[in-house]
Amino acid sequence: VLPKAGQPCNYNVYAATCTEVEIDVLTGETEILRTDILFDCGKSMNPEIDIGQVEGAFVMGLGYWLTEQAIYDPSSGLELTSGTWDYHPPFSKDIPIDFRVNLLKDAPNPLGILGSK
């Protein structure tokens, strides 16, 4: 069902990711060897920008899971960590050695501008 003219529409964005990680069981240190991402962005207007956005989102997610820790006071809800002095965002050494991002082909969005999402 198409929305009325001038009305916003909802659409889903999908991706599939597979990552190969080496973990030192004695120290807990990790090294990301390879990541493959297939991303559905509809019809890409600029593939280089879209791939850069996917790479950036992946690295941001790495930070959430591996290096960052926001601590909140359970009674007040106030954040106790004051920024990157208390945790460390990912560095270039944390990015996968082999990082492959592909955009799903032939998947235009009929509701988006020029088929994009």
Description:
The protein has a single domain (14-108), classed as Aldehyde Oxidoreductase, domain 4, CATH 3.30.365.10. The two termini are 17 Å apart. Helix content is 18%, strand content 21%. It contains one helix and three strands. By secondary structure, it is an alpha+beta fold.
Concise account of the structure shown:
With 117 residues, the chain is of the alpha+beta class.
Give a count of the beta strands, DSSP E runs of length 2 or more. Answer: 3
What top-tier CATH class fits best? Alpha Beta
CATH H-level name... which superfamily? Answer: Aldehyde oxidase/xanthine dehydrogenase, molybdopterin binding domain
Low-confidence stretches: none
Strand content: 15-25%
Largest sheet: 3 strands, mixed
Percent helix range: 10-25%
The general outline is flat
How many angstroms separate the termini?
17 Å
The CATH topology comes to: Aldehyde Oxidoreductase, domain 4
Rg over CA atoms, rounded to whole Å, is 19 Å
Overall number of domains: 1
InterPro entries: Ald_Oxase/xanthine_DH-like, AldOxase/xan_DH_MoCoBD2, AldOxase/xan_DH_Mopterin-bd_sf
Keywords: Molybdenum
Protein name: Xanthine dehydrogenase oxidase-like
GO molecular function: iron ion binding; oxidoreductase activity
